[in-house]
From TrEMBL, chain A:
The chain crosses the membrane at residues 143-165, 205-226, 232-251, 272-291, 297-318, 330-357. Keywords: ATP synthesis, Cell membrane, CF(0), Hydrogen ion transport, Ion transport, Membrane, Signal, Transmembrane, Transmembrane helix, Transport. This is ATP synthase subunit a. Key component of the proton channel; it plays a direct role in the translocation of protons across the membrane. It is found in: Cell membrane; Membrane. GO terms for molecular function: proton-transporting ATP synthase activity, rotational mechanism. NCBIfam families: ATP_synt_6_or_A (TIGR01131). Belongs to the ATPase A chain family. The gene is atpB. Its main location: membrane.
UniProtKB/TrEMBL annotation, chain B:
SUPFAM superfamilies: F1F0 ATP synthase subunit B, membrane domain. Gene3D superfamilies: F1F0 ATP synthase subunit B, membrane domain. One of its GO terms (molecular function) is proton-transporting ATPase activity, rotational mechanism. This is ATP synthase subunit b. Belongs to the ATPase B chain family. Residues 46-91 form a coiled coil. It comes from Zeaxanthinibacter enoshimensis. The chain crosses the membrane at residues 6-27. It comes from the Bacteria. Component of the F(0) channel, it forms part of the peripheral stalk, linking F(1) to F(0). The b'-subunit is a diverged and duplicated form of b found in plants and photosynthetic bacteria. HAMAP family: ATP_synth_b_bprime. It is found in: Cell membrane; Endomembrane system.
Amino acid sequence: MRNTLLSKFLIVSALLMSFTSFAKDAKEAGEAPEKDKKTEIKEYIEHHLKDSHSFSLFSYTKDNGEHVYVDIPLPVIIWDEGLKVFSSSKFHHGETVAEVDGSYYKLYHNKIYETNADGEIRYGDDHKVMNDKPLDLSITKNVVMIFITGLLILWMFSSLARSYAKNNNMPKGIWRFMEPIVLYIRDEIARPNIGEKRYRKYMPFLLTIFFFIWFLNIFGLTPLGVNVTGNIAITFALALMTFLITSFTGTKTYWKHLFDPLGDTMPWIAKIPLYIILVPIELLGTIVKPFSLLIRLYANMTAGHIVLMSLIGLMFIFKSWIGSPLSFALAFAISLIEVLVALLQAYIFTMLSALYFGFASEEHHEEHEGEIAHL
Amino acid sequence: MEKLLSDFSLGLFVWMTVLFLILLGLLRKFAWGPILNAVNDREEGIRSALAAAEDAKREMQNVTADSERLLKEARAERESMLKEAREIKEKIVSDARDLAKVEGDKMIKQAQLTIESEKKAAVADIKNQVAELSVAIAEKVLKEKLSENKKQLELVDSLLGDIKMNA
């Protein structure tokens, strides 16, 4: 009964929405303004997903069509025949050319290109920018957020550590909430996946990535709109660290398993044709595992941001009394899911890293045999 | 894929790696190390406290068992002591009884002997008195008869001879 009522309501509201949008189309006489709005929202979302050279707070359009950006400019550091440091306010959001020590730079789609004095962007065959790109080591919005998150985590957990020292190894206040999370990572992620003997070595890394990813994911949901964990460079760096730790802490058994997966189960002459295929697959597997980590985190966080912002953007497309509450309700629901996803992705990243560390640090051969039998 | 590659920013990657490694190092030294050690210490403490409690419980049980055993022993000892006392009492009583009996018997015997000897003495006394009386009577009779008749004297003599034979 309730369901049918709800579906009726949805159908009616959908119809109403289409009518109202038709009406508006008719009023504005033509599709052009509508399309502009859509492209604008699309560009806005794309812009938001990317890193930025300034910490934007908000922007608005004046009556005369002029865009006004309110933001905190961040320092630009580039290496182009020498270190050059200047404020990103010089770019005026890509609208003007910044002149530094006789060279001209222009911000184009959030990237710094070297241009001539007029700020000309040359395109190649397939719309690729042909201008030179200096090595950009700027302190961007994401770098700032990493810094802030890092300080926050450092402050939080060093306070926790101090509170232990003060209260006779018992947590107090807010730390009663944080401690179970730390213990959860130790007891439910590290211990079962890595093993009782070796898990301690990996604990600092696992705890750090868990809280780092979780906090950055949560920051991504704030109105500040920072999308750090949805940036490929960030997830790549995290996954690379997991890969390096896996490789460097890999035991003899792990490497032997990579290059000799079948072990003593058959004579060496029979292994040769198999190994031509098997060994590259095994080696590829070691790279695919962390690669899946980096893509999973990147895709999940980016998708979440796109969905959320699109739903909010709907409000500006359906300028009607029914569209806004609906898109608001949907955006709210998705936000709640995103809060869960933020935690879940941090958990999955940590969990899988622990699993890979566990594989790499295994020492008993029997466990491997059991694993093959299990497969 | 191409979009991913074009989105990749080397600068951000460098910053991320450097900042993350610094963060990892600092956290390891100032946060995770102390936290994990504290938690470990605490767990170790709890474990040892539990073990100590278990030990104490076992000790307690031992003590209880000991005291119970002691109590039982004491009870048994008391029992045996009481029994012994009873036996001693009985022995003393029976001894006393025996002794009393022996003594009594002895006294009775003595009394009997005394009575016997008294009786003998009395009989002898009576005999003596009777003899004296008889003698006196006989004297008187004799005095009478002798003066009168010689034949009567002879008769007294014969009578006295009878009495002596009876005695």
